Amino acid sequence: MDYKLVVERKELSRSFLVSVFVTFLLCMVVVAAWKYSLDKRGIQWKSHSSYYSSKGRIFAANESKNRIDTVFLGSSITGRIPGVESGNAGWANLGIDASSAREGLELMLKGLLPPAEYVVVEMDRVFADQMFVYKNPEHDLRQNVSWCPLFNPLFRASTLLYTELRNERFNVQNTEGWALLPMPPVISPLETEWSEKDAALLQQLTAVQEKFGSRLVLVLFPVKSRISPPAMRWKVARFAKELNVPWLDFNAQIPPEEEIRFSDAVHMQSNFAMRAAATIRREAERLYREKNYSNSGQGK
Predict the structure, then answer these.
(1) pTM of the model
(2) Which of 54, 134, 227, 247 has the highest CB neighbour number within 10 Å of its CB?
(3) CB–CB of 144/128 below 8 Å?
(4) Residue 130: exposed, middle, or buried by beta-carbon count in 10 A (0-12, 13-18, 19+)?
(5) Measuring CA to CA, how many Å separate 44 from each of 39, 48, 54?
(6) Mapping DSSP to helix (H, G, I), strand (E, B) and coil, where does residue 151 land?
(7) Measured between alpha carbons, how far is 170 from 151 in angstroms, rounded to an integer?
């Protein structure tokens, strides 16, 4: 073999290895800078997926050209409901993964989430001690990069995977034909301990009613293996009484598998989450039509 050719090949190999090493170092610098920017905003590695998957849903709702008449606020339990980001026009799934409806209510009152005629509030996680996902919401949620769609929150890997999960095995374009879930009876409110956090939540819910004229619906979603203790359900019932709004207690009994299926202990499979959402929406219409609840007029 020609000696000169051997030398050239060695030089090429060395150049290639140097290029790979330099590229690796640059990638590490970029990742470190990105990590630093997340830390500055209070976002840790663990919450990155929650941050972007929820932001993608919020972005889709705020950018939607269709009128949104129903908003679902809650945690990742609510997050399984396919909303406008999955082609389900009129419904906005604004469940914030790793958080609760308390954060959603605050963001709505700040004008960062769209209001709607019906605001469905998931109560399953609302009493838990949780950190808010968006430490600087005015900055995080007002970033509008739709001029370059590949960089908007809907195209983040976590958002795409979550959307695909919710699109699985059903057609979000047709909700009218969905069979409704049987509605368990709700329990009556009893006097329960009323904390400062409860009073603050009641104030948030009242503010949404008064500011937007929204029809609130409080919901305990179905669970796979363990129903909530009576004290928690009494508390939700008391909230509903104080607000003069309906509440739906899917948590009163463990549903048969043919009615609701779960991907883990608490998260419904997306097609069954859709069935639950359709039931909630239709029950809300019926209850507000038949009973004298607060804000029976149209929401803004």
Answers:
(1) 0.77
(2) 54
(3) no
(4) middle
(5) 6, 6, 15
(6) helix
(7) 28
